[in-house]
Design a protein that fits this description.
Elements lengths: L3 H8 L8 H14 L10 H5 L15 H14 L6 E2 L1 H6 L3 E2 L10 E2 L3 E2 L20 H7 L6 E2 L6 E3 L4 E3 L9 H16 L17 H20 L7 H13 L5 H29 L1
Parallel strand pairs: 5-7
Antiparallel strand pairs: 1-3, 2-4, 6-7
Helix pairs in contact: 2-9, 7-8, 8-9, 8-10
């Protein structure tokens, strides 16, 4: 049987949560306090300070989805050199791609290439990442049933493939930003017909039904972070919600209509987390 400390990794933070009514009041106050200035909490500038950034044969940095794909590949395979190049570039440098190597977007890492000048094999200086994963958040949000693909430049729930697509953890400014975004997308995931079958009338991106779905997901994220004792409602939640309240004609009562949906979604997630914990104890 797991110790009380292990069992409480999911349950304990729930007892310290702020009530949903208080959360909604604080969010409304934040919204009314100033203009919306929501921005993404992930991306290349943040990642460049925290990971070994992939570079070209001339040592200029890769960008966008290419950089993410190359970094993921290097991390998965333990490549030490940050340099990536095409076979013709390798040949011009006197090198040749080793037999059996697999490319990524037509590129190969220096570790996969023979006979390059020695400097190309020099490992990049290690990066000490000050942003650490949070155990209690992992206990609640790392669910067996959820498929997460950490290879995207944006965050979304892909309804067609029933999976969550996120940038890697290292691309977020803070651990809180990662878990807030993950929680938001898992709330969307709970609305699938095979789960809570949440029907809000969305027909296309940006319509009223879509806006309600975003309110539910962001409120659910705020509730989860409160339950995990990671934060009180933040300006980031308020700014994001304001974007979608505007679609609803600045109808703040829409937040209250979204609360029951968010509660059901959070309860669904907590039940799955408890089930996973019980399976580990058996």
């Amino acid at each position: 049987m797991a110790s009380r400390t292990e069992a409480d990794s999911v349950r304990c933070p729930l007892r310290r949560s702020t009530s949903s009514t208080d959360i909604v009041k604080q969010i409304v106050a934040e919204i009314q306090a100033g203009p919306s200035r929501w921005c993404r909490a992930w991306g290349a500038p943040q990642a460049a300070k925290r990971i070994v950034w992939p570079v070209r044969a001339n040592y200029t940095a890769h960008a966008g989805i290419t950089a993410i794909r190359l970094w993921i590949e290097a991390d998965a395979n333990g490549y030490t050199s940050p340099v990536w190049m095409t076979p013709p570039q390798a040949m011009r440098l006197g090198g040749k791609v080793s037999r059996g190597q697999r490319d990524v977007l037509g590129l190969y890492n220096a570790d996969q290439i023979e006979r390059l000048p020695p400097a190309y094999y020099d490992p990049a200086p290690p990066v000490v990442d000050p942003v650490k994963r949070i155990k209690r958040a992992e206990s609640l949000l790392d669910l067996n049933e959820v498929v997460i693909q950490h290879s995207a430049t944006d965050a979304c729930y892909n309804r067609l493939h029933d999976r969550i697509e996120l940038p890697p953890f290292e691309f977020f400014t803070t651990a809180k930003a990662y878990y807030s975004t993950l929680a938001h997308e898992i709330i969307h995931w709970t609305g699938h017909p095979n789960r809570l079958d949440r029907r809000l009338g969305a027909r296309r991106y940006g319509d009223v039904g879509y806006a309600m779905g975003e309110l539910v997901a962001e409120l659910g994220s705020a509730f989860i972070l409160s339950r995990l004792a990671l934060s009180s409602p933040s300006r980031a939640h308020a700014d994001y919600l304001k974007r979608w309240i505007r679609v609803l004609g600045d109808d703040y009562s829409a937040l209250l209509r979204a609360v029951p949906h968010a509660h059901r979604a959070v309860g669904f997630i907590e039940a799955l987390a408890q089930e996973k914990l019980c399976m580990k104890q058996c």
